[in-house]
Q: What sequence folds into this?
């Protein structure tokens, strides 16, 4: 059995919604194995994004523990958690969070600038990431001129340019045409992503069909 790189033990998560406690997870246990592509499948509102936020440390459980690379992330102070995430975890949100007035190249390069990577190495990595996600020809275009699908590919390139071991993708195929989805899946299964652990939420079957494993979440009824 491969080694789990992500482990959730007896996790409980609830939100206060208009004075009522909305339970999302009760006693959730999950292991994600090193190097696998895991699809989290389920309808809107079933907790897919919450699960990714818990794994990334953006959200905290009310009970239970979450381990990433054998580190119990709930015990880390915010500064150390942010540093840990920057080194080991790439995240692609449903909204792209790109800088619209910067070029594609500049957006993908940005995490490397913050990490203090030298100029020559930055350019090498950015060019490799752009090529891997089929967007080399867009390098000098402003992000504001791109389509939704093109922006999604830029977000993916930016997430992997720092070479994280874990990539968390929130509905990466949402609002994309079939050709763009196929290109994205090809990139996620390609050389640059080999050996990485991918956790992707989805409510569409195309990503489910190529995943090594699927976890199905059900929407809680009020």
A:
């Amino acid at each position: 059995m491969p080694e789990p790189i992500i482990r959730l033990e007896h996790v409980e998560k609830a939100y206060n919604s208009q004075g009522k406690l909305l339970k999302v997870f009760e006693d959730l246990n999950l292991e994600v194995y090193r190097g696998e592509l895991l699809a989290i499948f389920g309808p809107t509102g079933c907790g897919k994004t919450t699960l990714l936020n818990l794994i990334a440390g953006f959200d905290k459980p009310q009970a239970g523990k979450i381990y990433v690379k054998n580190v119990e992330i709930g015990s880390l102070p915010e500064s150390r958690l942010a540093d840990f995430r920057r080194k080991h975890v790439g995240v692609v949100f449903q909204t792209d969070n790109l800088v619209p007035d910067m070029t594609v190249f500049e957006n993908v390069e940005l995490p490397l600038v913050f990490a203090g990577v030298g100029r020559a190495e930055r350019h090498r990595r950015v060019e490799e990431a752009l090529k891997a996600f089929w967007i080399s020809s867009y390098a000098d275009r402003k992000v504001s001129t791109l389509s939704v699908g093109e922006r999604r590919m830029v977000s993916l390139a930016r997430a992997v340019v720092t070479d994280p071991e874990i990539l968390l993708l929130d509905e990466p195929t949402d609002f994309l045409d079939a050709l763009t989805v196929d290109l994205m899946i090809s990139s996620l299964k390609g050389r640059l992503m080999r050996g990485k652990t991918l956790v992707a939420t989805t409510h569409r079957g195309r990503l489910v069909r190529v995943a090594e494993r699927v976890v199905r979440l059900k929407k809680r009824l009020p």
Summary: Residues 4-216 form a domain with the Rossmann fold fold (CATH 3.40.50.300). The chain has one domain: 4-216. The mean pLDDT is 92.
